[in-house]
Amino acid sequence: MQIKHILLYGIIGVSFILLIVGFWYRSQPNLEIGKRLVDNSCGVCHDLTSEKKHERGPYLWGVYNRPAGSSGFPYSEAFLAKLEKGSFIWDDKHLEMFIANPMQFIPRTNMGKQNSKHPTAFSGIESASNREDVLAYIKTLK
Ligand code: HEC
Predict the structure, then answer these.
(1) How many CB atoms within 10 Å of residue 110?
(2) Exposed, middle or buried by CB within 10 Å (0-12, 13-18, 19+), for 36?
(3) Which of 20, 63, 64, 110 could form a disulfide with 76 if both were Cys (CB 3.0 to 4.6 A apart)?
(4) Is 67 helix (H, G, I), strand (E, B) or coil?
(5) 38 vs 83: CA distance, rounded Å
(6) Ligand 1 atom showing the smallest separation from residue 90 Cα
């Protein structure tokens, strides 16, 4: 085998390994990005601290694996109607569906609505990898 072939195969081999490592690295959730997203996208309406204050929405401290609608917050009729159809807990699957598109998961929820008192609304996080980072960070709020 000629030296240039050895070099060529070497480069292909190393690139392949870097590619795999890159995929593995990106598939790990990033807590720093998660914190930034949660502070910016959820913190406007939710208390994220152990003070557990209700703000525009219920406090999110300990929300991971908490039964939906159990924080004592005055939930909307739309939210309560969803619970009447079947109670659930905020596990990965349900949090993922809710933050991807709140209005689709709970039609007419106050989280996705604007009103004169609260001009902001939350339409969801489009990027799957951002949602993964958000979920990873939400789990640390306990
Ligand atoms: C525009 C304000 C607003 C934003 C932004 C917002 N929420 Fe909410 N959230 C609400 C409101 C209001 C409710 C109560 C919904 C209802 O009663 O219909 C709620 C409810 C929830 C609940 C249900 C909690 C329980 O006690 O069952 C979860 C979970 C939640 N939000 C997570 C999030 C996350 C995670 C983010 C950021 C990615 C976020 N929210 C961003 C306003 C918001």
Answers:
(1) 21
(2) middle
(3) 110
(4) strand
(5) 25
(6) 29
Q: Please work out whether the CB of residue 122 comes within 6 Å of at least one atom of ligand 1.
A: yes
Per-residue pLDDT of the chain (142 residues; tens, 9 = 90+): 788 899 999 999 999 888 888 877 777 899 999 999 999 999 999 999 999 999 999 999 999 999 999 999 999 999 999 999 999 999 999 999 999 999 999 999 999 998 878 888 999 999 999 999 999 999 999 9
121 Cα: distance to centroid of ligand 1 (angstroms): 10
Q: What is the pTM of this model?
A: 0.87
Domain range list for the chain: 31-138
Both tokens assigned to 138? 């939400």
Instruction: Tell the residue number behind the tokens 């939350």, with chain if given.
Output: 122
Token output for 124: 């969801």
DSSP 51: T
Cβ of residue 99 lying under 6 Å from some atom of ligand 1: yes
Domain 31-138: state its class. Answer: mainly alpha
CA nearest ligand 1 atom 42, residue: 111
